[in-house]
Amino acid sequence: MAEIVVVGAGPAGINATERLCAHGHRVVLVDEGRQAGGQGYRRPSPGLDLDMAALMGTEAGKYEALHARFARLLPLIDYRPQTLVWAVEDNMLHVVQAGVASTLRFDVLVLATGAMDKVAPFPGWTLPGVFTLGGAQVALKDQGCLIGRRVAFLGSSPLLALAAAQYRKLGCEIVAIADTTPFASKLAALPALAQSPRTLWRGLSYLAGAMLAGVPVLHGVTPVEVVGDGHVEALILRDRRGRERHFSCDAIALGYGLKPETQLAELAGATLRFDEAFRLWLPQCDADGRAAPGLYLAGDGAAIGGADAAEASGGLVAMAVLADLGESVDERARLELRRRLARLRGFQKGLAKAFTWPVAQIRALPDEVMLCRCEEVRIGEVRQAMAQQLGPVEINRVKAMTRCGMGRCQGRVCGPALQEIVAGAAGVAGEQAGRLRAQAPVKPIALCVAGEAP
Amino acid sequence: MSRHTADVVIVGGGLIGVWTAFFLARRKQRVVLIEKGVVGAQSSGTNFGNLRLQGRFPGQYPLSLRSQALWEEIEALIGEDCEFAQTGHLYLAYDDEERAKLEGYAQVSESHGLTIERLGPSDLRKRWPWLSEQAVAATFSARDATANPRLVTPAVARAARALGVTIIENACVTDVERSSGGFSVKTADGAHWSSSALVNAAGAWAVAIAERFGETAPIIPAGPPQFVTEPFPYLVEPSIQSVDGSVIFRQIPRGNIILAGYPRTAADPVNHRAPVPPAKTLAAMRALARVAPILAQCHVIRVWSGIEGYLPDMIPVIGPSLTMPGLFHAFGFCGHGFQIGPGVGLCLSEMIVEGATSTPLEPFSIGRFRESVAVSEKFRKEFDGA
Ligand SMILES: Cc1cc2nc3c(=O)[nH]c(=O)nc-3n(C[C@H](O)[C@H](O)[C@H](O)COP(=O)(O)OP(=O)(O)OC[C@H]3O[C@@H](n4cnc5c(N)ncnc54)[C@H](O)[C@@H]3O)c2cc1C
Ligand SMILES: Cc1cc2nc3c(=O)[nH]c(=O)nc-3n(C[C@H](O)[C@H](O)[C@H](O)COP(=O)(O)OP(=O)(O)OC[C@H]3O[C@@H](n4cnc5c(N)ncnc54)[C@H](O)[C@@H]3O)c2cc1C
Asked: Transmembrane segments in this chain: where (chain B) (predicted)?
């Protein structure tokens, strides 16, 4: 029987595993996290008494259902939590579990690795107290902590309003929800968003709730600066009329949507292509998630789509695996899932239009702004390196010359902004700036995990 | 089709090509350097950055020392800082056989005027208390140095350009011929150059050019895997190497530790890939933890390798073609071309302009491959049955 390994125990990975199990397959489910659930349906740390029903709001039912399904699945699978996949080579995953490196063979690999925050730098963004939006949610769900008592939510993402609502529920003061995208682009995206009326309604209700509570909701802002002496004290923005606005706060949650975790897919042989809507390099796969022979991608790691799309794509990928193994699948169910996924991802394309990545704002950032936090490289250093004779014009050469993207995160954080700075300075389209290639280890691994020679 | 003339055309914008261009320009030659990608992006830009004098092929010392003298004045020479640092090189032995090998290396180095310190376990503990206690002996050469390979080649290229060298990037040489008028060099984009001399400094791709003139060498494209850790408080001043070849490492002032592991891995010069197998990453991590247990919690954040030409005797080809007057080869640097790069460029410029160089280069003649050469022990040990 084919050895099937699923990486990622979020809604996509759990759904794929469940369906494969239902067909009698033994699945190894590997996840870096301590508990199943992934990012959106993250469970609180054991022993922490957190009212998840209140926190999850309208999604509480789905949250409960996913965890209940996982509990039923658990005895049937080989589940390996706290296991990082750091490399893929041929038909072998290289993993680190409990501080020990080992390998895991597979015939079929399903990657449901989810996403991480996409952020753009601006003056002062490295000051303590500035968190990524997802990080702010992790602090909340994992530990029941708030990142501050008076928090500003800044960026361009539907999750800004969601996270702000969650924070408000736990008694946090929201000093502003500030979006860099003009309101007009949101209106223009409405037809696409109407494909998923329920989600659209949910998003609007978060915003309406915030406005009713008197939270300033701004569109079309330009981030000016974070000020503070050793810690965030205020956020300064320019509003759409060009007026400078000052919001005093003790923390900022910063997010410009999500960015798929594509490194493993790339190492496993997926082809990446620059996507103009998301302005990211995304793995290519067919409608069912096939990326290469034996390689399947599901969930946010394949295309940002949110939890519902992640579940649907997990199911579709499982069907693709089954079909490719020569087993019969329910064609009607498959068509229905394809339709559902297309609609949900269509909605997401609409979101990408409504909440755009502020290309012009990033390209216009001043030289002093820190671009790469790991290696402490400022934007001016990149521009200077590129301006000299025989200087780099492509993103990997820029990395080689300036160390930008060479640190602990390997460009996972600064990559998208670096792409814009390089493209801007070279005067080329985003795609022509090139792509930071994935290298194993996809995340840092300690020398001691290698252990003694066998 | 555009036609141009020059005194010398150089194929390949790696370290060897740019240094040769630089010294030729100082000798008032009109030089054109043609690079298929960008300057310094291949092995010259991916290497470990070591300028090691200990333990080299004995016949290479005159060249190597001439080169080190150039490195020691690099900033004055090219007008840019390339993070050259004379931090020394420490060789470690773990048993008596290795100790004897170190002693052999030391005597060769000393016969060429280098100062080599011999250290026992207690000296090692005193000087570098964090080193594992397993080493039984070590030698230290203070003159050995490092530089930043990512910066050097473009910087030398800029210096060469300032002296009048024409540097053409993103132009692949597809055709070279010799007629009565000299060499005729064509690039993929249709440009056409003629010159009286031609330098083949095309790295792992150089044999294709040699073969056009009826010469060859058994080159193998490969690269030693390289790794870098997250920054760690600054601790390791010299480059440290186990003489068994399992690991070499150094620390940059920013704190990252750079290490290289062996054996070397075959690379794909057609698709420009030099993958590092995960098992090698683990092996190198183990080897480093063995030498410096204090680093056990340090994380490896990135790996890479490069595409370089290796020859079975682990000695490069440097010098005139034996079939075609005016053609000069400089390739197959077998993992140590960074250190001798400036010297190679200087010697080639002397040969081309003055007709001879005072540095003995006979051991590097391409003629040695007319017969089968002995395979070096290093090649056998430090390669994956490539
Ligand atoms: C920080 C964060 C917070 C979010 N919060 C919300 C929210 O509150 N509400 C909402 O609707 N959406 C939220 N989202 C969006 C959310 O990602 C999706 O809606 C949904 O979780 C996607 O499901 P998925 O199965 O594709 O991936 P995920 O749920 O993200 O699951 C991916 C899993 O893969 C694992 N993984 C990744 N790489 C490796 C590796 N190399 N080795 C081993 N395991 C690996 C991860 O640990 C994770 O458990 C959040 C996203 C992020 C990044
Ligand atoms: C990972 C690694 C670590 C190393 N560590 C060290 C070290 O610590 N110390 C040390 O001394 N040495 C080291 N070396 C060796 C050293 O890097 C090389 O010997 C040296 O860089 C070789 O320089 P080069 O100019 O011959 O080759 P390259 O830098 O490879 O340059 C050759 C150039 O020719 C170009 N080219 C090829 N064909 C054509 C064509 N047809 N038309 C136009 N252009 C062409 C290529 O694109 C390339 O840029 C290491 C090598 C590697 C790969």
From this structure: 6-25
Q: How far is A450 from chain B (nearest CA, A)?
A: 5
> How confident is the model at residue B386, as a pLDDT?
42
Residue pairs between chains A and B whose CB atoms are closer than 8 Å: 88
The beta-carbon neighbor of A445 closest among B276, B300, B304 is: B300
Average pLDDT for residues B80-99, to the nearest whole number?
96
Return residue ranges of chain B for CATH 3.30.9.10: 87-144+221-310
Contact between residue A429 and residue A279 where contact means Cβ atoms under 8 Å apart: no
Give A454's pLDDT tier (boundaries 50, 70, 90): very low
Contact at CB, A448 and B296, closer than 8 angstroms: yes
What does DSSP say about strands A222-227 and A234-238: parallel, antiparallel, or unpaired?
antiparallel
**At which residue do the structure tokens 């995953």 appear?**
A93
Interchain CB distance below 8 Å, A447 and B289: yes
Which residue type does B199 have?
Answer: V
Q: What is the pTM of this model?
A: 0.94
Residue B303 to residue A388, Cβ atoms within 8 A: no
pLDDT digits (tens, 9 = 90+) for A361-374: 999 999 999 999 99
B154 lines ligand 2 (CB under 6 A): no
- What would the pLDDT profile of A383-399 be if each residue is shown by its tens digit? 999 999 999 999 999 99
CATH class given for the domain over B87-144+221-310: alpha beta
Tens of pLDDT, residues A199-210: 888 888 888 889
State yes or no: pLDDT of A352 exceeds 60: yes
HEC string for B198-250? EEECCHHHHHHHHHHCCCCCCCEEEECCEEEECCCCCCCCCEEEECCCCEEEE
Could B41 and A397 be called an inter-chain contact, meaning their C-beta atoms sit closer than 8 Å? yes
Query: Atom 2, ligand 2: which residue's CA is nearest?
Result: B47
Atom of ligand 1 nearest to the CA of A13: 25
Nearest to B38 among A397, A440, A452 (CB): A397
Distance CA A196, CA A188 (A): 15
The CATH code for residues B2-49+150-217+312-374 is 3.50.50.60
Residue B82, token pair as written in the block? 């390339």
Express each pLDDT in B3-38 by its tens digit: 789 999 999 999 999 999 999 999 999 999 999 999
The whole-number average pLDDT for the span A231-256 is 97
Q: Closest ligand 1 atom to the C-alpha of A116? A: 53
